[in-house]
User: Fold NUDIX hydrolase from Azonexus hydrophilus.
Amino acid sequence: MSFCSLCGAGTLLRIPPGDNLPRQVCSHCGHIHYENPRLIVGCIAEWQGRILLCRRAIEPRLGYWTLPAGFMENGETTADAARRETIEEAGAQVDIDAAFAIVSIAHINQIHLFYRGQMRTPAYQAGEESLEVGLFLPDDIPWHDLSFRSVKLCLEAYLADRRCGNFGFHEHELHPDPGAL
Amino acid sequence: MSFCSLCGAGTLLRIPPGDNLPRQVCSHCGHIHYENPRLIVGCIAEWQGRILLCRRAIEPRLGYWTLPAGFMENGETTADAARRETIEEAGAQVDIDAAFAIVSIAHINQIHLFYRGQMRTPAYQAGEESLEVGLFLPDDIPWHDLSFRSVKLCLEAYLADRRCGNFGFHEHELHPDPGAL
Ligand SMILES: [Zn+2]
Ligand SMILES: [Zn+2]
Assistant:
């Protein structure tokens, strides 16, 4: 059972006229409640060849290492979101260079978008959602203790591009894989 | 006034513990209702140098020309969304080549993501949300009757890249401009 955010009456799962998917439609005021995928924006921030990672203080994947990332907020651009998450989770100021990768995870209705950028100073500090923060050379990245597959894919693609001296824009799709990250 | 989608009780605008922005929080069950930007996905589909455009049968910008595009649905990838919108609005099958551009429009909480691809056949047909569909050479594009600024930016960047023989990934931010498209 679900309720209308506008009037509080119950909603019914119906295909609205002109649509082709069922939506929660208010039984009283007729308002159609669309649900859409959510965009998670993150950042690969570098300082002198080292990459900024955070160890998660929250579920899911508490205790595992991740790139600063989080749900995009209303009223910001995607690059704003990347800068904000890097400040909030890692206490670091980053100058964004470009979008780097987009990962579609259709089965959980998420899109992960990662930027790449340069830290302005080597300063960082764990935010409320991080247990600790660190700067890692490629060989020192905790590859077996990364939080999410999208983070691992993104770090691998980033380091491969960096070795070539040429950054592209990368696309991935992730499918259910209960045994893996 | 707003209501909880889980229990129908009234919500209150509050900053939840550990958060830093006000959210609609249920006065009865405590559920936090996050609102996030929505992702609109579109496609630049080409057939022998011509670009597929649709004339909008719906508001906003009814009667203006646009690229096939629409709100991303749960359960699909971004490339799925680009293919689906091209079928729904233009009746055309497209093979996706790559993501081409992302446009942040922070003041309306939208992200527009455009793919580029090749039509499998020259067949097209106006869908329910289109008055007509056509294939346009660059000089024949109705530049003064385009629907949205993001569409214009995207077409200009696409044609510039095509002339160079090298497609990049493009980022733009749009700000309020009431006098313009
Ligand atoms: Zn209602
Ligand atoms: Zn509630």
